[in-house]
Design goal:
Elements (H helix, E strand, L loop, with lengths): L7 E6 L3 H17 L6 E6 L2 H10 L3 E7 L9 H13 L4 E6 L4 H7 L6 E4 L5 H15 L3 H12 L13 H4 L5 H7 L1 H5 L18 H13 L3 E5 L2 H13 L5 E5 L4 H10 L2 E5 L3 E2 L4 E2 L4 H10 L5 E5 L6 E2 L2 H10 L3 E5 L23 E4 L1 H4 L7 E5 L6 H11 L6 H38 L4 E2 L2 H4 L10 E2 L3 E5 L7 H12 L5 E2 L3 E5 L6 H16 L24 H5 L4 E4 L20 E4 L4 E3 L7 H12 L5 E3 L2 E3 L2 E6 L2 H6 L3 H4 L2 H4 L3 H14 L5 H7 L3
Parallel strand pairs: 1-2, 1-3, 3-4, 4-5, 7-8, 7-11, 11-13, 13-14
Antiparallel strand pairs: 6-15, 9-10, 12-17, 14-15, 16-18, 18-20, 19-20, 21-26, 22-23, 22-24, 25-26
Helix pairs in contact: 1-5, 2-3, 6-17, 10-17, 11-12, 11-16, 17-20, 22-27
The protein binds pyridoxal-5'-phosphate (PLP).
Keywords: Pyridoxal phosphate
GO molecular function, one term: carboxy-lyase activity
InterPro entries: Orn/Lys/Arg_deCO2ase_major_dom (IPR000310), Orn_Lys_Arg_decarboxylase-I (IPR052357), PyrdxlP-dep_Trfase (IPR015424), PyrdxlP-dep_Trfase_major (IPR015421)
Length: 692
């Protein structure tokens, strides 16, 4: 096993040889004589450009010391200029500037947020400098919660508190369940502790090691405040809504947002304004909401309190966020970005800017999805200048378990440390592996990794959308295998499990745990499968068009909490039930894939919606449909009764003019039918387009 001691390079930049040589040898001798747990070794550069080359190429670089002598804009200014350049490329690096005593007065003027500290050129105390650099790395790489957890476990205290397994003691001598002890390991059980241990702080009221871990995370991710969360981004999205939105407040949201966002709408009693996302029907993949749609929604809803978008999308599509955030801010709208799939972006310039760097007020990240943390370990980053910390805390505590899993918190500490200390290096490796994989898969001539041009729906082609290269969407349509068959063969024969599939694509995620061996095995499998390709049937499939959003008749919460009544989706002849037309749905109904809600609570049901659902359920390809009721083995939709609808407190917000005038229900039904007969596909055309 190779040594796992870290290597940390420190770059000293100066064009003054008379200063540089003694500085380098003084620092090297200090590193040899003093304790050097991070393996700091010094290298040099003579110019700013040379320094930048090293910053880009050396993944083990942790520190840069810049001498004021750099030729350029005046004493010290060139050094700070370089510090800013380095910072915008790799913000995680620690930067020190060396100035003379007589320039000290300038420091305040020159001070740059990029710089972590200054050394005095006239006081070349290399031992002292080395100690400071080493301490800087100790601070950055600290894992305060994980350290305290380890320390506590090592103390071997007797447990007279929850959890009931008492560090695994209930398991280890049991003839029935000791295998679980062996399987998960002693440390995981010993570290499964509770708020009864004060030295481990409290996730619900952090003042000690968890507070310190949160501060370190905020620095690492570039936030004013960061919160560690153990209930996933599914929960943190809801916490933010409940902090920002009072009942009835308007929220602009991508209709394709994760279901937790839609649940958050119900819980916060917000008034949603749904924005239809773009869709690439050829491959069954949803893209961003068109910029024009977002700008229009901002213009038409200046009273909206918040906008939430997913960036990147599940398939890796990234908005050009900055102008969108600016437009929202101009209208006084807070911006929440669901970065569940993009937590690593801060640590390599190929992926930046992050949502926070684009000015987002709240960012939620599933650290567990793409970095090294256990499932459910997430973070919320806050940059909102008007952040109401007290309210956020109250909402956080309302959703958080009072028994958070401590291994998850420790894994957030470790995930953040790894991203900070070696994220650049790991991501650089992933980018190279991804490019190699892409090239090899394409060289099969049968499989093809789709690029942004293939995936971008027409309506967002000019929106500056980018693609995250760690998410590979492979077109398998020429192989003759269906996606389900392909996934099964990869699993059974080649021991490979991908992320997801559509009818013609397979998605593979590269991550910090991707190894060269896994890449080789995948390439081998793809080559063999390409050789075994089958004759491809002539017809080509397109995803059925998800019906456009119809309209709300009341707030989602008002509909969700009513009892409602259930109406069959199909009539006695097996046709879409016309009695559903004009009725108001109580539940969120979504088909997976694609995962976009076809109906949300409070939404008026239209004929294309019933046809679409009926066709999905009758198709040959099994589709999961969530939110339908089961009445005697038949699918049914829970809808508001007329009395419930009329009594809904939020009803008046949505009354159409003709409904206000009376005779509302019948007129509303007629209107919906007329409207829906115009541009949307008929039931039959939807039918033909569904892949089955
Ligand atoms: C866009 C998006 N947001 C939020 C979530 C929920 O994240 P978590 O699994 O951390 O609860 C997911 C999960 O897949 C997601 O895709």
């Amino acid at each position: 096993m190779p040594s796992l001691k870290p290597v940390s390079r420190a770059l000293v930049v100066s064009n003054d040889a008379a200063w540089l040589e003694p500085a380098l040898s003084g620092l090297a001798s200090a590193s040899a004589r003093l304790d050097n747990p991070f393996g700091i070794a010094f290298v040099s550069a003579r110019t700013g450009d040379h320094a930048m080359q090293t910053v880009k190429a050396d993944g083990d670089l942790q520190l840069v010391v810049i001498d004021k002598s750099l030729a350029g804009l005046g004493p010290g200014q060139a050094a700070l200029d370089l510090a800013n350049r380095i910072n915008s490329w790799r913000p995680e690096l620690s930067l020190y500037v060396v100035l003379s005593d007589d320039e000290r007065a300038m420091v305040e003027e020159l001070v740059s947020h990029a710089v972590d500290g200054y050394f005095d050129r006239d006081e070349p105390d290399y031992h002292g400098w080395f100690r400071i650099l080493s301490a800087e790395l100790a601070e950055k790489s600290a894992t305060p919660f994980y350290d305290a957890l380890q320390a506590y476990v090592k103390m071997a205290k007797d447990s007279w508190h929850s959890p009931g397994h008492s560090g695994g003691d209930s398991l280890k001598n049991s003839p029935w369940v000791s295998d679980f002890y062996e399987f998960v390991g002693e440390n995981l059980l010993r570290a499964d502790l509770s708020v009864s241990v004060p030295m481990l702080d409290s996730l619900l009221h952090p003042t000690g090691v968890i507070a310190t871990a949160q501060n370190l995370a905020a620095t690492a991710f570039g936030a004013r405040k960061t919160y560690l969360a153990t209930n996933g981004t599914s929960t943190t999205n809801k916490i933010i809504f409940q902090t920002l939105l009072a009942p009835g407040d308007k929220l602009l949201l991508d209709r394709n947002c994760h279901k937790s966002v839609h649940h958050g709408v119900i819980l916060s009693d917000a008034r949603p304004v749904y924005l239809d996302s773009s869709v690439c029907r050829e491959f069954g993949i949803f893209g961003p909401v068109p910029k024009a749609t977002i700008y229009r929604a901002i213009k038409e809803n200046p009273d909206a309190k918040a906008l939430i978008l997913t960036c990147c999308t599940y398939d890796g599509m990234l908005y050009d966020l900055k102008p969108i955030v600016e437009a929202a801010h101009k209208a006084g709208i807070k911006v929440i970005i669901d970065e569940a799939w993009y937590a690593f972006a801060r640590f390599h310039p190929a992926f930046r800017p992050t949502a926070l760097e684009c000015g987002a007020d709240y960012v939620t990240q599933s650290i567990h999805k793409t970095l090294t943390s256990f499932s459910q370990a997430s973070m919320v980053h806050v940059n909102d200048p008007e952040f109401d910390e007290h309210l956020f805390r109250e909402n956080f505590n309302m959703y958080a378990s009072t028994s958070p899993q401590y291994a998850l918190i420790a894994s957030l500490d470790v995930g953040r440390k790894q991203a900070m200390m070696e994220g650049y290096k790991l991501l650089d490796r992933i980018l190279k592996l991804g490019a190699e994989l892409r090239q090899k898969i394409n060289s099969t001539g049968v499989f093809r990794v789709l690029d942004i041009g293939d995936l971008l729906p027409d309506e967002v082609r000019n929106d500056g959308v980018r693609l995250d290269p760690t998410k590979l969407t492979v077109d398998i349509s020429k192989s003759g295998y269906s996606a389900d068959e392909m996934e099964q063969v990869l699993f059974d024969k080649y021991n490979i499990q991908g992320e997801k599939s559509t009818f013609s694509t397979l998605t593979l995620l590269l991550g910090v745990g991707t190894t060269r061996s896994k890449v080789s095995r995948l390439c081998d499998a793809m080559f063999r499968l390409a050789k075994d390709r089958r004759r491809v049937p002539k017809q080509s499939y397109r995803m059925a068009e998800v019906p456009h959003f119809s309209r709300l008749a009341c707030l989602p919460r008002s509909a969700f909490y009513e009892s409602g009544e259930c109406l069959y989706l199909l009539d006695d002849d097996g046709r879409p039930n016309e009695a559903l037309t004009g009725r108001v749905c109580c539940d969120q109904v979504l088909a997976y894939p694609p995962g976009i809600p076809v109906l949300v609570p409070g939404q008026v049901i239209t004929p294309p919606i019933t046809s679409y659902l009926a066709k999905l359920l009758k198709g040959n390809k099994p589709v999961e449909v969530h939110g339908l009721a089961d009445i005697d083995g038949e699918y049914a939709v829970r809808v508001l009764t007329q009395e419930e609808l009329e009594a809904a407190p939020s009803r008046s917000l949505f009354l159409q003019d003709d409904e206000k005038a009376g005779d509302g229900d019948r007129q509303q039904q007629q209107k919906v039918q007329q409207l829906e007969q115009l541009p949307v596909p008929s039931a039959d055309s939807v039918t033909e387009e569904v892949h089955d």
